[in-house]
Batch of 3 targets.
Target 1
Amino acid sequence: MAILGLMGAMNVGKTTVLQMFVDYVEKAKIGKIKGGVECRIEKQDFKGESAIEVEDGEGFTKTITPNKVVFVEEKTGTSHTLFAPGGDRDRAVIRMGIITISRIARQIVGLFALDQPLKEQFKLYDLIRYMPKTIYICLNKYDLMEGSEDEKEAKIAEIKEKITEYFKKRRITVKEFFQTCAIEKEGFKEYNDNVARMILDLVLNRIK
Ligand SMILES: Nc1nc2c(ncn2[C@@H]2O[C@H](COP(=O)(O)OP(=O)(O)O)[C@@H](O)[C@H]2O)c(=O)[nH]1
Ligand SMILES: [Mg+2]
């Protein structure tokens, strides 16, 4: 039984990643992807999403209390729990969620948005005192990267290096990087599949 915590600054895509995973399970896609296994959702709680109205624009939601998903591997009957707290470290109730989940989770995934500066995104981790010795990194919003394939590759290599350095200073080893796109978008199916595969790799301990 795994307990996985998805951490990351506001708007990097924690809630969306979790929702995409649920979607893969509910639409029976997860057993069909490479590395997929049949699963079912036992519980999902996105009640902590609070709608934020903006004057002229679409509006968005902000995670107040942690999102939670429990799913079961059909073959073995093993259940796994996924948590994604909010990312707004300036609000006490959200901060409490971050700290609690960081202590409960046995595996932590740090999410980063590839289209936003890293520096701001690191700040959240300064808050978490109890971190495991290893962390997994999800580089999300791959679809928003600009440039040629070569340019993207170079940019990602640089980002990986900076993230590895940051955690190394805190004596945390980055064990694996994943690259994802958490919204359905043409041309990015492999990166959508990576969302589901990442979670399975982690809960099934497939990363050596
Ligand atoms: N283009 C793109 N948008 C994304 C992706 N993942 C999340 N988003 C969008 O980014 C915004 C913030 O996502 P959300 O899951 O609420 O972030 P959270 O604060 O980390 O939970 C939402 O508008 C999402 O639709 C992605 O991979 N690509
Ligand atoms: Mg959220």
Note: Helices lie at 14-26, 92-104, 118-122, 149-169, 189-203.
Target 2
Amino acid sequence: MASTATVVKHTGSHYLLSPLPRWEPFEAVLRGQLRLQSGNSTNPIAVGDRVEYEACEQGPAVITQVLERKNHLVRKSVNLSRQSHIIAANIDRAFVVTSLYFPEVKLPFLDRILVTCEMFGIPATILLNKTDLYRGEMPGAIDDFQRIYQSAGYEVIPCSVRTGEGIEAVRAQCRERVCLFCGESGVGKSSLVKALDPSVELRTAALSTAHLQGRHTTTFYEMFPLNGGRDGFVIDSPGLRAFGLSGVEKEEIALYFPEMLRIGAQCRYQPCTHTHEPGCAVKEALEKGEIAPERYQSYLGMLEEESKYRK
Ligand SMILES: Nc1nc2c(ncn2[C@@H]2O[C@H](COP(=O)(O)OP(=O)(O)O)[C@@H](O)[C@H]2O)c(=O)[nH]1
Ligand SMILES: [Mg+2]
Ligand SMILES: [Zn+2]
């Protein structure tokens, strides 16, 4: 009889599985022929994958099948081979962590991460961390930030590991879910995970990197239980820098801005790039202040960058 479990860690040849929501990790290996069915990706199974396995009397269990994924994060290989690497699968929510200050927020970078989440079908919540550093000096800046992203359709949770602001709201969102923490380095991802459960051993330095085929770099991700799994499960990440928009058509980019996707259906021309076309509903909404100029600027930046690569 095959049982199902979730991949919580991958270390080269071995996997750790756990029958989530129970945290009882055990070792497993891959049945040989599964490797052949991995298509374009360099790894057939990633952290978060639900798999069927057969238990063995002695030694590790054997993974016999990967169940269908709800979503998965892919990193394209930098070279022109069509290979890609699956970073994680079945993520219920991404926490896109940022701070207004130290490091100073770069909205185009933040928007790129949000677009990446939309591309892969991962619901995102923004954690505006380190409010202890700027709530006093620039109270209006927090409101401005919230206005931009809430009007785009994202929930923003101001939080601080120092004062504890927002931590319980984040915890409530983690429960019964597998959440990915992502965002620029230094914004406080690992600190937030630690605030949710001080016993989590985030060995960020131990994220193994193996060089495959010269320039292709593989990073292994790992899942951790929050308070034994009672508060859900998290995957910390060193950043989303490597996930380019490669392979995205110009016309496609606006579909990953929820506020443009909503309004874009009313544009006179379809598909519309929302730049020069007459009767563009997105530009009208921009003029009326219904779409934040900061988001539109990020969009134009991405359009320009993608066209550059396409020429
Ligand atoms: N003042 C303040 N510092 C924070 C907060 N959260 C994290 N930090 C600090 O920011 C630095 C980077 O945090 P870290 O969790 O390693 O960021 P990561 O790279 O996103 O994982 C560390 O020195 C933390 O102590 C916060 O809420 N307030
Ligand atoms: Mg970290
Ligand atoms: Zn338009």
Note: Residues 264, 267, 272, 274, 277, 280-282 surround zinc ion (ligand 3) (CB under 6 Å).
Target 3
Amino acid sequence: MNREQPKKAVLAVDDDPKSLKLLVDVLTLEGYRVITAQSGKDALEQIELEKPGLVLLDIMMPEMDGMETLKRIKAFDQDIPVAMVTAVWDEDEAKRAFEAGAYEYITKPVDIEYLKLAVLVKLFSEK
Ligand SMILES: [Mg+2]
């Protein structure tokens, strides 16, 4: 695709290494700089350090789950776009995620083309 890539990284967060690798592979191929975290705590550290342009956040994680991580991310910086990624479609959970500031709610197995668009529209709509 003939366009400039944004400088800011995408932070992919998932406790499952296979799911994480899929996100990294897809987005790296698209030309994005991708950083990773395997827990909510790790994600919050990466956000402070790297100031990513967008976060893809797994919901089901041990200790701090994605919903709690989302709330903490938004408390730290409400402008960071966060897309939730979940194994189970749950409309109530989706509503809670949107209320807490998520902009997307993507179900696994992730539709690759949808994922690319969800990242693209958000990163390139940022000023
Ligand atoms: Mg998980």
Note: Residues 10-125 form a domain with the Rossmann fold fold (CATH 3.40.50.2300).
